[in-house]
Design brief:
This protein has 7 helices and 10 strands. The protein is of the alpha/beta class and 268 residues long. The protein folds into 2 domains: 205 residues, 3-Layer(aba) Sandwich (Rossmann fold); 55 residues, no CATH class. The strands form 2 sheets. The chain has a 7-stranded mixed β-sheet, sandwiched between helices. α2 runs antiparallel to α3, α2 packs parallel to α7 and α5 packs parallel to α6.
Length: 268
């Protein structure tokens, strides 16, 4: 269904469940470590074989060594972060329309799944978090109504903003796993400082690749039918350790399906 190049991933491991550090979440098994959350069933099973060897009393004789404690598991929520090239290259306005359409459609799934969507746009000399993480269709519609496009391509700024958002999400909601979706042709021509632009992009991409609770996609919008093909988005995907897609034409339905397929893989 999708044009996907199987690049070698430096994946951090996919999982959508995490061990709970409190009394929230589903009880999945018991253990000996004292966390204050006694597993009555497992404790009784541990004590039962020992009753014949212990002093008789009116009820079960339960000793400290019998105690078992609950290990709980929480389902991890997902945050899908769209990082969108809003520069003048590659028909940015239409690309923005399709991306916003995909976000609005994906939000219909979010409430049921405890998931959220965010959007970062990079253009001119900066990147902007134009949609804070949300599962609200109404909020997204207001935030995304009009987004200007045009200008240079500060790809490094977009990656840096994504890094900051993922780090902040990890501090605020450590049970959340992020799916970073970068939509660009990779032709960065505006940097953050004095370093070479492509070196900045590569360094930030490799930093993102090291984040443990983050999976990554790159949607390459370069016109592969043109004479000048630089394949810079493919290089970006390699540095990110990302899955790499090359659509003939970027459509909202395509983006929805790619993201939904990726989220389904996280739950497999």
């Amino acid at each position: 269904m999708f044009k996907k190049d199987r690049l070698k991933r430096r994946a951090s491991g996919r999982r959508t469940k995490t061990q709970s550090k409190d009394k929230g979440g589903r009880y999945v098994k018991s253990g000996l470590r004292d966390n204050g959350d006694v597993a009555i069933d497992a404790t009784l099973r541990a004590a039962a074989p020992m009753q014949g060897l212990r002093a008789r009393q009116s009820g079960l004789n339960i000793q400290k060594e019998d105690l078992r404690y609950k290990k709980r598991e929480k389902r991890m929520g997902h945050l899908t972060i769209f990082v969108v090239d809003g520069s003048g290259s590659m028909g940015a306005n239409q690309r923005m329309i399709e991306t916003k359409g995909a976000i609005m459609s994906l939000l219909s799934d979010c409430y049921r799944r405890r998931d959220k969507v965010a959007m970062i746009v990079f253009r001119k000399d900066r990147a902007e978090l134009v949609l804070q993480p949300t599962s609200s269709v109404a909020f997204a519609a207001r935030s995304l109504r009009e987004l200007p496009v045009g200008g240079k391509t500060p790809l490094a700024a977009g990656l840096l903003e994504a890094y900051r958002l993922i780090e902040a999400t990890g501090r605020k909601a450590p049970e959340t796993r992020c799916l970073l979706t970068v939509i660009t042709d990779g032709r960065a021509n505006a940097g953050l400082g004095t370093a070479k632009i492509r070196e900045e992009v590569g360094e930030l991409a490799r930093r993102l690749a090291q984040l443990k609770a983050c999976d990554r996609l790159v949607i390459d919008t370069e016109d592969k039918r043109g004479l000048l093909k630089l394949h810079l988005a493919r290089s970006l995907a390699q540095d990110l350790g990302a899955d790499y897609y090359t659509p003939d034409e970027l459509k909202a339905e395509y983006l929805q399906d790619v993201v939904r397929q990726s989220l389904a893989a996280l739950e497999a």
